[in-house]
Amino acid sequence: MTAAEALTRALLKLADQDHATPCQSRRRDRWTSDDAEEREWAAAVCVGLSCPVLVQCGDAGAEFKAAHHVWGGVDRTPPPARPKPAKRTARPNCGAVA
Ligand code: SF4
Question: Closest ligand 1 atom to the C-alpha of 11?
Answer without folding.
Answer: 3
